[in-house]
Automatic annotation (TrEMBL):
Enzyme Commission code: 6.2.1.n2
Entries under InterPro entries matching the protein: aa-tRNA-synth_II/BPL/LPL
Keyword Ligase: yes
UniProt superkingdom: Bacteria
Keywords per UniProt: Ligase
GO MF annotation: an example: ligase activity
Protein name: Amino acid--[acyl-carrier-protein] ligase
Native species: Roseibium polysiphoniae
Length: 302
């Protein structure tokens, strides 16, 4: 049996996750949620004195902001939008008949003003833009959000609905690059404390199509994205559990986020894949959290 599937089966058998019947969509146990909660507290203990504010976003964002982000252009294969029934009484009867006959009933579904959030930092940028010019110190925001990616898989680390904890830095080129480099070091320190094997490597986002492959190559060449990877599903293909991203002034221009001098703001973010990090901990320290190394338990539970 494939190693990836066997790890997923172990998670089901141990009651850490519960199968929903759809790949990548799982119920989480209390133990799993406790590990995520403890990790979030652990992550927030790093850099907590630097943040200017904190926000938690719902799993949906305005469709107009989703379009402004460019996500649909670059990653249409991963995107999800919210559709709802918008028909008449007659359409409702047709809907019921289609469902009763086991036929396609989605014809009367139309898109709403909501898209499923693909990345935790996206809803932040229009909020900052509406406030006007940034102060000289810029913005340094801690975020958390459920995110969606349309990539069903039997790899337990590749969920369709998952949470991202992020720190986002918005300001000058110097401020954002320094932020990213600082967090590359902090991320590795965190993993050493949690006794998780890891490496940091240059990466690129999964841009779609031939033009997307060129964009990915350019992203790697400019070293705009780094990932901290941990062997979870297999040693041969480690899983990206943290990312360190410098967006230059792309989002500043897209949403008209202005620095104090009126120029487009630069942005950078560090993202923690909460489910992936929890799975890495279970993979390397076992399914019984009470048997985890004392140093790891001390870091997470105090």
């Amino acid at each position: 049996m494939d190693a990836q599937v066997s790890f997923l089966d172990q998670l089901f058998n141990q009651g850490i996750l519960h199968d929903s019947g759809v790949d990548g969509l799982y119920a989480r146990s209390a133990a799993f949620e406790d590990v995520i909660s403890r990790f979030e507290e652990f992550a927030l203990s790093f850099g907590q004195d630097e943040i200017s504010e904190a926000m938690v976003f719902p799993p949906g964002m305005p469709l107009t902001d989703f379009e402004t982000s460019g996500y649909m252009k670059n990653f249409p294969q991963l995107a999800g939008t919210v559709h709802a029934f918008c028909g008449s009484d007659h359409d409702h009867m047709g809907l019921i008949q289609c469902m009763a006959a086991g036929e396609d009933w989605s014809e009367s579904q139309k898109k709403t003003d909501v898209a499923l959030t693909p990345a935790a930092c996206y809803p932040l940028y229009p909020i900052l833009a509406r406030r006007g010019r940034l102060p000289e110190a810029g913005a340094y925001v801690a975020l958390q959000s459920y995110c969606f990616r349309n990539e069903p898989s039997k790899e337990p680390t590749r969920m369709q609905m998952f949470r991202q904890r992020e720190y986002v830095r918005v300001g000058t080129e110097e401020q954002t690059i320094e932020f990213r480099e600082t967090w590359k070091q902090r991320g590795q320190e965190m993993m050493r404390i949690l006794e998780l094997p890891h490496e940091v490597e240059v990466a690129n986002d999964p841009f779609f199509g031939r033009v997307g492959r060129m964009m990915g190559a350019s992203q790697r060449e400019q070293e705009l994205k780094f990932e901290l990877v941990i062997p979870v599903n297999s040693g041969a293909n480690p899983t990206a559990c943290m990312s360190f991203n410098y967006h230059m002034d792309n989002f500043g221009k897209a949403w008209n986020i202005q620095q104090a001098d009126g120029s487009p703001a630069h942005t950078a973010c560090v993202g923690f894949g909460l489910e992936r990090l929890a799975l890495a901990l279970f993979r390397h320290h076992g399914f019984d959290v009470n048997a985890w190394p004392n140093s790891v338990r001390s870091a997470l539970w105090g």
